[in-house]
From TrEMBL:
One of its GO terms (biological process) is NADP+ biosynthetic process. It comes from Desulfonauticus submarinus. The active site is at D66 (proton acceptor). HAMAP family: NAD_kinase (MF_00361). Its cofactor is a divalent metal cation. The keyword NAD applies. This is NAD kinase. The keyword NAD applies. The gene is nadK. Transmembrane segments: none annotated. Its main location: cytoplasm. It catalyses: NAD(+) + ATP = ADP + NADP(+) + H(+). Its EC number is 2.7.1.23.
Amino acid sequence: MMSSYFKNILLVLKYGDEKALELSQQIKSFLNIRGIKVEIFFNRLEGKTIEVNSKNIDLVIVVGGDGTLLSVARKMILPEVPFLGFNFGRVGFMAELEADSWQESLENILQGNFRLSNRLELNYDIPSLEEKGVAVNDIVLHRTGLARLLEFEITINKEEKFTVRADGVIAATPTGSSAYNFSAGGPLLFPELKAFVLTFICPFLCPLPSFVLPKSTKLQIVLTSFQSEAMLTIDGQKGILLPPQVKLNISVCKKSFILIQKKESGFVTRLKNKGILQC
């Protein structure tokens, strides 16, 4: 049985969520009866990293919405382990298991009725600010304050260079391609695709197509001039205020984000179920 793969589980929930805590305690008892060790951890939005006592964790269960799952995956200090999400939020695009049928869903997972979705993450590095980290969904450079354009210079693999004036630019993983990137007119990428997408937010004078870039691509974005403040937002959760002439480096992370999904849960099916693809 596939359940033999899961001997030590980390159960993470949003701090202060009473309903998530109640469900987590039920899940813990359910797993303990089956001889599986469980450690409960509370995720705080302001926390930078999640460090656990055991290095033998072989599954991370997140009780919350997609936002909680993103936060935990981004901050987790562990080798590559799969994540399983129980949805307490509104969308549930990644955290697709519903809380009202958790016993049946979890039993199916323990019996091996799942598929692994291996997805890339993005590294970001701002040397002058000593800021670096990982994004699971997207990295967004955007204006803040007054409605004025930003100007930035983009260099691809230290070779090709061009300048753009726009409200901002989005670097999205395949996982994040169905979020802000899609709303800004960018393409949908299948989650396991080894590539990422660069999409411009309201470019000045002429429409600019998105760039779908191979995983080997190294990007540098320089904020060359602006008349209003600029911000870098990571996964819609972490914000970094940017000064003029700052350099931002983006590349694909060596570590992957591994998501456990139902076997019957295809990408197009989920797009239809969540109203993203209406046809």
